[in-house]
Design goal:
Helix content is 38%, strand content 28%. By secondary structure, the chain is an alpha/beta fold. It has a single domain, classed as Rossmann fold (3-Layer(aba) Sandwich). A hairpin with a 2-residue loop joins strand 9 and strand 10. Helix 3 runs parallel beside helix 6. The longest helix has 16 residues. The protein is globular, with a radius of gyration of 17 Å. The protein binds adenosine-5'-triphosphate. Adenosine-5'-triphosphate (ATP) binds next to helix 1. Keywords: Amino-acid transport, ATP-binding, Nucleotide-binding, Transport. GO terms for molecular function: ATP binding.
Length: 239
């Protein structure tokens, strides 16, 4: 089966330093793939390159939604139009704008009636956002801001969602709630690439997983298998 997203030999860096040294990964349609690894391993850098925020130094990124196209180095807005949408680390909602205005930004390219239809779907999934549509996003709790960041991405009706550390800074109960929502997105046929430092939560929800160490894939496999790997349990699962 052709993967929805297929990465080969991806090399990324800042200034003179390479931080990702020619990695490969594949994301099957309708799956959740987790990319785990410690602080500074290069996870965020990989997501930024996939969404077009950073140009790869080498490598190929193939997107197979309909025909297969090479998208490495394409501009961020073109990649977003293809259906690849990132939810950034730290949410990055616009604090001085209302919840509704933040949501509208996720679908800036569609006409207002269509955006309204999409907003209804997002609010059905995140009822708490519905209660706060006219409030400034800066007043939301951390969990609500994460929901808003995900809701804003869903406004674009993405094929592939790139989630960067959705659990960051959130209480365990909220993390559970967010992860249940991520699972429900897969159940609806969306595909998810999930970057997490919370390895146990990420492996529990994922179908397949990659462990990244200092810019290289250290190991990969079915998520349940990766979760049982002694190196992973020792280094990332706090066992
Ligand atoms: P974290 O969970 O802390 O975000 P990460 O696995 O996502 O970790 P990256 O943020 O991708 O890691 O960082 C990978 C490496 O690139 C780190 O050594 C980091 O210091 C470096 N780096 C990240 N952003 C920049 C930047 N803008 N300029 C220079 N170096 C950077």
């Amino acid at each position: 089966m052709t993967a929805l997203l297929s990465v080969e030999g991806l090399r990324l860096g800042y200034a003179r330093a390479d931080v990702v040294h020619g990695i490969g990964l594949a994301v099957q349609r309708g799956s959740i793939v987790s990319l785990i690894g410690s602080n500074g391993a290069g996870k965020t850098t990989i997501l930024r390159s996939l969404s077009g925020l950073m140009k790869p130094r080498a490598g190929s990124v193939r997107w197979s939604h309909g025909e297969t196209v090479e998208i490495a180095g394409e501009a961020a807005h073109r990649i977003a139009r293809r259906g690849i949408v990132q939810v950034p680390e730290g949410r990055q909602v616009f604090a001085n704008m209302t919840v509704a205005e933040n949501l509208r930004l996720g679908a800036y390219h569609v006409a207002t009636p269509e955006a309204a239809r999409r907003q209804e779907a997002v609010v059905a999934r995140f009822p708490r956002l519905g209660e706060r549509l006219r409030q400034q996003a800066g007043y939301l709790s951390g969990g609500e801001q994460q929901m808003l960041a995900m809701g804003r991405a869903l406004m674009a009706e993405p094929v592939l969602l790139l989630l960067d550390e959705p659990s960051m800074g959130l209480a365990p109960l909220i993390v559970e709630e967010i992860f249940a929502i991520i699972a429900s997105l897969r159940a609806e046929g969306r595909t998810i690439l999930l970057v997490e430092q919370n390895a146990s939560a990420a492996l529990a929800i994922a179908d397949y997983a990659y462990v990244l160490e200092t810019g290289r894939i250290r190991l990969q496999g079915e998520a349940a298998e990766v979760a049982r790997n002694p190196e992973v349990t020792a280094a990332y699962l706090g066992v």
